[in-house]
Write a structure and sequence with these properties.
Structural class: alpha/beta
Largest sheet: 7 strands, mixed
Pfam families: Aldedh (PF00171)
Organism: Neolewinella xylanilytica
CATH superfamily of the largest domain: Aldehyde Dehydrogenase, Chain A, domain 1
Shape: globular
Keywords: Oxidoreductase
GO molecular function, one term: succinate-semialdehyde dehydrogenase (NAD+) activity
Low-confidence stretches: none
InterPro entries: Ald_DH/histidinol_DH, Ald_DH_C, Ald_DH_CS_CYS, Ald_DH_CS_GLU, Ald_DH_N, Aldehyde_DH_dom, Aldehyde_DH_Superfamily, Succ_semiAld_DH
Distance between the termini: 80 Å
Length: 491
Amino acid sequence: MNLQEPNLLRHSGYVDGSWISADSGATFAVVNPFSNEIITRVANLAEPETERAIAAATLAFQTWKQRTATERSRILRKWFDLLLVHKEDLALLMTVEQGKPIAESRGEVEYGASFVEWFAEEGKRAYGDVIPSPRSDARLLAIKQPIGVVAAITPWNFPIAMITRKVAPALAVGCTVVIKPAEDTPLSALALAYLAEEAGFPRGVINVIPTDRPAEVGHLFTHDPRIRKLSFTGSTATGKKLMAQSAGTLKKLSLELGGNAPFIVFEDADLTEAIAGAMTSKYRNGGQTCVCTNRFYVHDAIYDAFVQKLAKAVQALKVGDGRVADTEIGPLINNAAIDKVDRLVADAIEKGARVVVGGGRSEAGPRCYTPTLLAEVDTTMDLSREEVFGPVAPIFRFTTEAEVIGLANDTPYGLAAYFYGKDHARIWRVAEALEYGMVGINTGLISTAVAPFGGIKESGFGREGSKYGLEDYLVVKYLCWGGINDRTVTP
């Protein structure tokens, strides 16, 4: 990698304002998922270093929370500016360690930076309330205060944006943070820490624990009473374990977990717009996003036309190394990911699905999968229930509104859903009936820093982004102020 700022490539953990090696001297390899080549080796931190990070964050919290919201905002703004100044380097780092096309990486840097910008301002608006008192001698107030030290466990698919979406609101209101990035993508997290240090965050406010032993660090996060809030993005199974482990200290939790997003196309939909939305919601990041469409439901009257148009768009996608400018689909993150896609597609074909496009691995690279479209898919197939997390679009048929609402909601997950249509009355009915935390209506792109991101049911709880995202890092304190009446004053 030819970085304009070589210092962005870090090999150490970041604890209490210092770049550290593991006490044991251990390291682990960071691998390019396209070439399977080792990019570098990073310090493999464990329990002792994590303990020190929590201690540092606990101490730093005592002074960071005393800073005014404006002071914290200024440092966040400097961090935001630095993210954009170094956008090209950060994008290249991300593409090399995560695999996504360079254009998408640039977009993620801007998206991630937008959370820092938003919360730099929103942190000034953590308003409380003056409550009308039932007593003449008392005044009632509700104020908001930072919850304390926050642990953030972030995924590999958006290695910058998932950190800033969690960390920026925490920092803005006065919390300190300990970050455990995904073992597949620690370089982006460490580059963020380097830029945070350059922006002027005091020592101990931000700490980063690279490790290939996430269960060990996660266990410490959940059991340490100094950690008052845990924010996690990842699988539902892991989220449940973290929630159970956190019960002993009653931590506040934000869990953004698995999805099984439906994409419904009604008979009155604009097909051109629906195809564009389908491509965005399905094939962005090679299908490796939690809000990616997992199930397409297309009305029987337009089913064949939709499949034909979508097939043409899918066939045009270029698969390859994300560093090449015209690549649109990069590799899957690891061998387990591509094996899972293989299994789900094979199961669907065996049970009667028709391969329209793709259906197998790509010759572009060992972890590349050909963008795939499957027709005549039904609910007996495993991919109707499991999150594919790959570039595979299964197309189901439906005939009535009630039928497709039932199919869309027939899942324990409830993160994101999409639908296309023009009937305004039906738009209201369907939007209200879908059991999901986020619904895209005539659009396949819903994520933005100014809107609340999060799910319901087994997709988790809590919201990230928007004014609602700030609340997850605050506690409400009630103040009852008595003795107000001045008895020396006569009417």
